[in-house]
Design goal:
Blueprint lengths: L2 H10 L3 H18 L4 H28 L18 H5 L12 H19 L1
Helix pairs in contact: 1-2, 1-3, 2-3, 2-5, 3-5
């Protein structure tokens, strides 16, 4: 029942892979048992939202660190119908530069885990 709080703490500390692994290990249990329990359904929903926000944060960091997230950047397709600002936040609040290579690898490694999970 503390999973949302645990995920937030791990993300706050930059432990993105740990948060992702915690979510993955609990998600099968939540999915299996949440049908009869509203509280578990709420936890599952909250945790999914937390992970989606984390994923957006990591993509935003990597694009910014790569020099691809600036005032002229648009991830949109179909003539730019969707605004990258909606998905990746405003350009006035850009991520800090990485403190080390470890931080970059943490972001990339986490996104890799999430991509693998989606394909299963």
């Amino acid at each position: 029942l503390k999973l949302p709080q645990t995920l937030r703490q791990e993300i706050q500390c930059g432990k993105y892979r740990t948060a992702t692994k915690s979510f993955i290990s609990a998600s099968s249990i939540l999915a299996k048992h949440s049908h009869g329990f509203e509280s578990l359904r709420q936890i599952e929903s909250e945790c999914t939202q937390i992970l989606q926000e984390m994923q957006q944060l990591l993509v935003r960091k990597l694009f910014h660190w790569n020099g691809q997230l600036d005032d002229d950047f648009n991830l949109g397709y179909n003539g730019g119908n969707y605004d990258d600002e909606d998905k990746y936040g405003d350009h006035d609040n850009l991520p800090e530069p990485p403190k080390s290579m470890t931080e970059i690898f943490e972001c990339v490694g986490t996104l890799h885990i999430l991509m693998q999970e989606e394909t299963m």
